[in-house]
Design goal:
Number of strands: 0
Helix content: over 70%
Largest sheet: none
Strand content: under 5%
Order of helices and strands: HHHHH
Number of helices: 5
Structural class: mainly alpha
Distance between the termini: 63 Å
Radius of gyration: 18 Å
Amino acid sequence: MGEVTNSMLQAVPIEHDIILCSLLFSLGVLGVLIRKNAIIILGCVELMLNSVNLLLAAFSAYKGDGNAQVLVFFIMVVAAAEVAVGLAILTMMYRNTRSVDVSVFNKLKG
């Protein structure tokens, strides 16, 4: 069963994974640069992080080594903690300003 799964993974060229992850990462960067809603920006940062994770897992599967997949797991744990802290900060900012617009947060510099 393992040989069938490995041959199926190798049937898709690694270039397809690289192109997909590059497009997802570019979409995330575009969202961070263009959007003004802090929640959408946080989602775009997560999209960029997940595209890197996907590429790391694809390279790991292509090479046949599972060490990078363990690293992906730890990166996902850090990303979950980042989202929790980011949403907590956004909640407090929303309570103060009644907006999640990034340009409003600029006025809080003092």
